Amino acid sequence: MVAFSLVNWKGISFYNLAFGDYIDELNKLNDDSVSNNGDRQKVLATVAAIVIDFTNHFPDALIFATGSTPSRTRLYQMNLNRLWGEIKLLFQIYGVKSNGTMELFRAKENYQGFYARRILH
Questions:
Q1: For the chain, domain boundaries
Q2: CA contacts within 13 A on the Cβ side of 55
Q3: 39-72, pLDDT tens digit by residue?
Q4: Contact present, 89 and 48 (Cβ < 8 Å)
């Protein structure tokens, strides 16, 4: 399941991106689950396709994403690095540093989270 939640923080509106397994009994998303079924890249590609579709409908949306653990955030960053040539054509990506500051994404920097905004052509 992928969910976008509108957040207003310090006068800034953005959508928090969350994804994971849907737990029927609890009627909620579990972003801590680990399936280990070998479909990680397929899941990340599906989430990316959903983000592209979301921003097709809401082109001005600012989207925030971070992992539920530091290792997941690192995994997301590794995928951003790996696919940077394609991503930078569609999105402007900002990295959130450990001190809370934000900067344009740089491959060699470690980030705590990421903001993305669709580039309007």
A1: 2-118
A2: 22
A3: 667 878 888 999 999 999 999 999 999 998 899 8
A4: no
